[in-house]
Amino acid sequence: MTTDKSSKPRLSDVLKAAKAKHRSSKTAKGKKAAKASASSSSTVDVTPAPRQRLKANELKWKTVNTSTLPGMDGGGGMMMLEELDDVAIEWEDDGEGRRTARFLAKDTKGKRKAEEIEESDEEMAEDDEAAEAEDDEDLPTFAGLDASDMDDEDDEDVVEPEPTFDDGLLPEWTGVSVHSLIKRAMVALDFVRPTEIQQRAVPIGLDGRDVVGVAETGSGKTLAYSLPILSHVLRQPVPRAGVRRPLSALVLCPTRELAIQVNDALSKVVAAALAKDEDDEDEEGDKKKPPRISVGTVVGGLSAHKQKRILDRGCDILVATPGRLWDLLKTDDILAASIRTVRFLVIDEADRMIETGHFAELETIVGLTQRNYVQPTDDDEDPVFAASATTLTETSAREDMQTFVFSATLSKDLQQNLKKRKRKPSKGKRKASALEDLVEKLDFRDAAPEVIDLSPEGGLVATLRESMIECVQADKDLYLYYFLLRYPGRSLVFTGSIDGIRRLIPLFEELKMPVYPLHSQLQQKQRLKNLDRFKSNPNAVLIATDVAARGLDIPHVDHVIHFNLPRTADAYVHRSGRTARAQNPGFALQIVSPEDRAVQRALLKSLDRDAAPGDLEIEGGFLPKLKERIALARQIEKTQHEVKKESHDRSWLEEAAEAMDLDIDPSMFSDEEHDPDAPFTRKGSKKQTKKSANVPKLKHQLAQLLAEPLLARGISARYPTSGSRVIVDEVVRSAAHPTMLGAGTAKAFEVADNAKPKALHKPKSRVQAPRETAQEKKDRKRKEKGKDKRRKFAEDEDEDDE
Ligand SMILES: Nc1ncnc2c1ncn2[C@@H]1O[C@H](COP(=O)(O)OP(=O)(O)OP(=O)(O)O)[C@@H](O)[C@H]1O
């Protein structure tokens, strides 16, 4: 389909000029541009002469990318959209209100200025994305890519020779044909020994095979799939400057945090691989070259505009969450085509991806990589879709595409099916799970993808220790507080709901604990900030939903606490896997109330275990004081909440009344003169003031309680050298517990070693009624006969009455 170019409005230039005007009030750059645009009152041109007139149909119109994928209305209903560069516009007034546009050639100076404006327009567009509340600094890095890197246009495609590498530096990687620059990075990052999954999966990946890798949490799966990809990219010709790179790999992750983490892990290896030695020559010359490898990330919650720009420049490896990638695909056929021709497709934490509610997006994205791209039949007859279909069907998916699926938990059934390439359950068998559905949609090029299953017994890592605290539901806060004080360290607390987090955070803040929330309803910027705070404080406590359960690689998480048990064994494995990573010791605690027992039993059963973790020893002497603190903190929280809620409700009522021009009935407010049970408290009324005034008093009391030392039984704070336990030596040696005097300083995982696993509580079997004797049976029958007769008689009487 063609467009009539002579009648085309010069949209981009008009917009540029209009935006420049708007911007003039905002930015310094804008002032310059506005000056240019204000130089003639009858023109919106951004540059002055030369003014050589041009014919519209001789101009270099450029097609604007909009998606033509079925079901995506990326062009907003337009069939085609084109734009112009390097052309100015002049409007000629005919004096009767009609205006004619003229195209004028620009000089290079004008081009430079226009580019300046374009750049500034982009900045403005980013400002406009304030809804996403993101700063550029918060964006994931685009490994080494700089605008100046893209300026040279005269380089040729060349395959750089692989530098030699002394295998003696990395004996355990000998024989693995990863690129020598990657080996260099492994030395620099101190990854001198491959983990088991890396040992098994990397050579197969380098061999061009498909891999399904299942290995325990924290076992280095990210590098297991990344090293073959990075080696492949490094062995490709160095991309020419100014040319959009073909996308080599697409890595799909279930959560934003995980995608950013994978991006960081890859960027770290790339940076170490390409770091210049001191004796490397031509540093100046190298600076101007495009980056050797570029990694891009697209995730929800961060500036879509900037992410789009990264994609427009092109990158080698794209790490994405399905939701945001889908959004970008809607407006970009080139991106869709590059995904179609991708060399590597990675599904990280495959099973979780199914649960995140992005299954449809994931399915469509995965569908693009299939050899036979299938157009939905409904759209076949639509001329627009018929035309658009060519974009994708003309691009062939690669026959040598490799698919990597990695997770710490992948059902044995599914693995078996993959091995046999029998991915559909045969007829009459149970319904396929969503994951099986997805795997079926993965168009493995390999006749038999290599399934590497290194998952440990019971799904849990060997260096993990577990314990349990059994208590009533109402005491869970108390025991959590006890544990966090008793075992200082970086602790990750999992709750079952966002509401649970919203309740716990203010409570523990009152108790002056360094707690941070993490859940899906927080802004992405806040999520990343809280993660950073958690990473940087060795005693921080992150209270999270399962959004933090998968893949997050936070160094040195000492404890994972299941404040609420998860519903599935996989979730338990992934949550617990945030500690005890990379062979480090770790500890997981279950806080179990009687209401949780059934869930615990089911969980342990799915994990193939017949015993629950042993009880964590509790030093009861500390509990009364902690209980007092918790009670006071709750009271403060409750009062503050009430005051806040009342003032919120009152302002809502007042605003609504004002909007409707109504007077509020005084009986709606409770104070001394009116109904004390009225729904609202009058602002400034004694009742309200009393409530608010109470808060500082309660806070003062709590501060005093928090300042009091916590003493184990038998310890005297006043006379540390006497009492039934003497702790003065510990204090002098600085070996005493930091907050609980008299408590030991052993770590939780050391203490857990001594606890004996507990046999599972069996549900109480129903008391069986003793079997009736023959005589009893006879008597029962006789009684029932008599009852029947009496009922019959009564019914007959009722009928007569009617
Ligand atoms: N060969 C290695 N030697 C030492 N450390 C390594 C090696 N490979 C990876 N690591 C480190 O191990 C940690 C865990 O790696 P990674 O996050 O890839 O684990 P994972 O198996 O993907 O875990 P999960 O299943 O929880 O996502 C990372 O900090 C990583 O830097």
From TrEMBL:
GO cellular component terms listed in the entry, alphabetical order: cytosol
Molecular function via GO: ATP binding; hydrolase activity; RNA binding; RNA helicase activity
Catalytic activity of the protein: ATP + H2O = ADP + phosphate + H(+)
Record's keyword terms, sorted: ATP-binding, Helicase, Hydrolase, Nucleotide-binding, RNA-binding
Compositionally biased intervals (Acidic residues): 116-139, 148-165, 666-675
Biased composition (Basic residues): 18-34, 779-792
Domain Helicase C-terminal as annotated: residue spans: 477-622
Chain segments carrying region Disordered: 1-77, 106-167, 666-697, 753-802
Residue stretches of biased makeup (Basic and acidic residues): 1-13
SMART domains hit by this protein: DEXDc (SM00487), HELICc (SM00490)
Record protein name field: RNA helicase
Organism of provenance: Apiotrichum porosum
Name of the coding gene: MAK5
